[in-house]
Specification:
39% helix; 7-stranded mixed sheet; two-stranded antiparallel ribbon; 10 helices
Length: 321
């Protein structure tokens, strides 16, 4: 079967690891109009796509999870966590809204026993909680000694945490980016976690995937995720501190070449579309009844002069004969 020109040029633009699909167009705008952020299939954002990859990397450590606690579940993270096969998957939030929540409660007072959670996921939650230190202490309390927490918060490197739980809605929007946020974390975020009894390991898409792969899945290369464990328990997994491994360099080289070829294909598509448009225009000009004759050009005027000269020569020969 012969492919049509359009299908040949439908070059992959993005890969979404959340729904495991290759997308031939740019992603849709995200919150606040952020360009190329939201997968058109599953609506995942940058953080969800890196979370999907991170879970895949962590899977050897998560093959025997008894209790998984997902704080503030989302339509993107819950299915990914469901694939882990945890024997118990609890979803905790203050309200159910339109989500399926198993436990109504606050992260500042988790109704679970000490050392009972094997995996805790807390994505973009702590910035909503006025007493975030109480929430961090609860994370340290409920995590098993060899349990693992995966945390992410809005974070500005090179600053200190800006917070004000008493700020009004407009002030929160201006300072923290959302009306229901009470802070924007800075470099002291890790000190806060440590003061609450947590050992920390940070990881970014760039360190795990490389620049090109991060771009292809549309993950923010330097957006941090924190892996935590109780400070008195097992060490946070060291193998996840990936710098520039041979695998990362290979991915970068491969996707760099794909990106270059993609640019060439898109340029070719643009040229083809311009040729098609010109062809259609010419067809319309020829086929249209009563269409005005094409405007004279220097070349057509020269041809008329040549024809006249030839005709005059012919008449001259006739008279001579």
């Amino acid at each position: 079967m012969t492919s049509s020109p359009s299908s040949i040029l439908d070059f992959p633009r993005r890969y979404c690891p959340t729904c495991d699909r290759i997308v031939t167009k740019d992603f849709r705008p995200g919150p606040g109009g952020r360009p190329d952020a939201s997968c058109p299939r599953c609506r995942s954002l940058e953080r969800h796509r890196f979370f999907a990859i991170l879970l895949s990397v962590l899977s050897p450590l998560l093959d025997d999870v008894d209790l998984l606690l997902e704080v503030s579940p989302s339509p993107q993270t819950t299915p990914l966590l469901g694939r882990l096969g945890a024997r118990t998957h609890l979803k905790l939030d203050l309200g159910a809204d339109n989500r399926r929540v198993d436990v109504l409660g606050s992260l500042t007072d988790v109704p679970l026993a000490d050392d009972s959670v094997d995996l805790l996921v807390c994505y973009h939650v702590l910035e909503h909680i006025p007493d975030d230190l109480a929430a961090m202490r609860e994370i340290a309390r409920v995590l098993a000694p060899d349990g693992l927490g995966i945390l992410q918060v809005p974070f500005r490197p090179g600053t200190v945490t800006d917070e004000d739980p008493s700020a009004g809605e407009e002030e929160r929007l201006r300072r923290f980016g959302q009306a229901d946020h009470v802070r924007y974390y800075g470099d002291d975020f890790e000190d806060r976690l440590a003061s609450c009894g947590l050992a920390i390991q940070r990881i970014t898409p760039r360190s795990l995937l490389g620049e090109e792969m991060s771009t292809w899945v549309r993950a923010e290369p330097d957006e941090m995720v924190w892996l935590v464990r109780p400070a008195t328990g097992a060490a946070v997994p060291e193998p996840l501190v990936v710098t520039s491994t041979a695998l990362t360099r290979t991915f970068d080289a491969m996707l760099g070449e794909i990106t270059r070829l993609q640019g060439e294909v898109l340029q070719a598509r643009g040229r083809l579309e311009r040729v098609r448009a010109e062809r259609d225009r010419l067809r319309g000009a020829v086929a249209a009844p009563g269409a005005p004759a094409p405007a004279a050009t220097p070349a057509s005027g020269a041809r008329r002069v040549v024809r006249r000269v030839r005709a005059m020569r012919g008449r001259s020969r006739g008279r001579a004969d």
